[in-house]
Amino acid sequence: MRLTGIRRMEMMEVDPPSLSTDSDVLVRMNTVGVCGSDVHYYVSGRIGTQIVEFPFAVGHEGAGVVVDVGARVSRVKPGDRVAIDPAMSCHECDQCLMGRHHTCRKLRFLGCPGQAEGCLSELILMPERSLYPIPPDISFDQATLAEPLSIGLYAVRQSDVRPSHVIGILGFGPIGMSVLLAARANGVDRMFVTEKITARLSLAGASGAVLALNPDREDPVARIAAAEPLLLDVVYECCGQQEAIDQAVDLLKPGGRLMVIGIPEIERLSFAADKMRRKEISIINVRRQSGAFQSTLDLLAAGRLHADRMITHRFSLPECQSAFDLVAAYSDGVMKAMIDIG
Fold first, then answer.
1. CATH code for 2-134+307-340?
2. Cβ proximity of 63 and 80 under 8 Å
């Protein structure tokens, strides 16, 4: 299934991929999750400088079954169920050697223009290092969710959050929910959420938030400050909105950390310089994830990440456009739409 224009998709018959290197693995896709970044390409054809040349397949959250492997592949074998890390790093550049595979100088990412076609397809070819065997007790759905969940886990690790900390999550889409679940698995129990979609507010409360409110209907800074007069240790900005950045700065206590995770649709964000300086707030950008994918699968297998509520809608591969339209419009209380391919 490929994008053929703005808000247009088309099913195409193409030659099946075949092994081209001895580290390649051929995977038959089972399930693909629709991510907000996929929808950016669908509705605008770009994210920043990454511009789609049509036709192009998006999709990077997925799980499937190994069909064939290259001669040197030892990590997986035909018949294995695998979760897909969409990042394909070179493992040789300075960034990779520093353990920063997510900022690899030669990074290729599934469904990213100019890098690699996405996984909205029956068969895809992946390098062995990007595949993770799925533990027996984990479903294909959970394995697919490991990709967004790993971003939440990585963000929590980068923020050095502790069980005693009080945190805020601004924007409760799949990434905001992933942050909350990861923080909860890390022992945090004082979590405040803002979100404009009513169904997601209810989900935030059911998932462990002590207060979930709509910033369009009430002042989030005033409400949260009333509950926590000393303010918050960490705020995770998960919606890519300038107003959320401003609220985060007001919500943070002196020495607090602002984690910028959301992908903004605008070219620049601004910060209240005087407040930032006087509070000595640290700003940390989160770029996908690094080193958190296997840990996420382990937490899912151990029953410490409860993410099944994230999935709200299902579609078949031919129904992809309906799925993307639903997510783009935030309709019907959608949180995560899943595409069933297998």
1. 3.90.180.10
2. no
